[in-house]
Amino acid sequence: MSFSNEIREKIKQFAREQSRHYLEEAEMTYLEKLKYKTGQLSSKVTANLAKLKSRSNLSIEAQNDLILYISDYMKELMEEGLSEEEAFERAKEEFKFRSETIESADLQKRFAQYYENLDPARYEAIGLFYAGFMFFGVSIGALIGFLGSGGKEMFNAGGWIDTLIGVLAGGIIGIGFGLISHGIIVLKKKE
Amino acid sequence: MSNMSEMLKGVLEGIVLEIISRGEIYGYEIAKKLRLLGFEELAEATVYALLLRLEKNRLVHITKKPSELGPPRKFYTLNERGRQELAEFWARWDFLSERIQTLRLEDSKNEF
After folding, report:
1. B71/A26 CB distance under 8 A
2. What is the tally of structural domains in chain A?
3. N or C end of chain B: which has fewer CB within 10 A?
4. Residue B65's domain spans which residues?
5. A39 Cα to chain B: minimum distance (Å)
6. Among residues A112, A129, A162, which one ends one of the domains?
7. Is this prediction's ipTM beyond 0.90?
8. Residues 73-92, chain B: which have Cβ within 8 Å of A?
9. Which tens digits make up the pLDDT trace of A58-105?
10. What letters, b where the CB count within 10 A reaches 16 and e where it falls short, cover A97-133?
11. Does B72 sit within 8 Å of A65, measured CB to CB?
12. Are residues A93 and A161 in the same domain?
């Protein structure tokens, strides 16, 4: 049983992409993996691996191994009655790199940090600060604009524009204060 | 048996070394043997990744033979270091299974 040229190319492409990840994982020692998990070594390890891969045939060998592996797997599926395309899709799912040590570890770490730091009360407080300062700014700006333009008599005779400017300026000042309080809350959380 | 992957993590290398110790074998054949042994839940990629690691740790001897699919196929046998690692694995396994069995029997005695 042989594959069409199109599928053969797809297998090669997939193996080229995925074997890199498998190789990276296999190349790291246990200690390196631990350090990688704690984020101390990622750039150093990646740089070393890049050097190693560029000067060795390891990468091509790993690709070839994966090509054969996928081909064997697909052949078996096709013998069970799956089409070439279906078998390839299944193989892609099965051989897609899943690691707890490289990419997913980073992602998991970031998710964990996010959820650890997630405090609904803090977000509510930030929202209330923004809203509060906006209301303050808009009302004070409107009042200054209204009174400064000449009050009720002048409002219809063009004074409304000053009130509007006051509202806009007050709104911007409110957002400014909101941002400052947001920054203070974030810094306090970091401490 | 389902939900075996966590438990298998620590022993899969030993199982694969034992399979390789029985005679020259290539990667996909190992995966098939594992399925026949009942480890259907194992992802195909797990064996591929494990073989790369065995190779990197120099526990296997590799012979490349031409394949009908293009690139040469790697056949694995255990080298001296691999045999030593396998012996250590079985020693660890015996120790662990004995202790677990002791615990289990003690526990059931206490129940009565």
Report:
1. no
2. 2
3. C
4. 5-111
5. 22
6. A112
7. no
8. 73-74
9. 678 888 888 998 999 999 999 999 999 999 999 988 888 876 554 555
10. beeebbeebeeeeeeeeeeeeeeeeeeeebeebbeeb
11. no
12. no
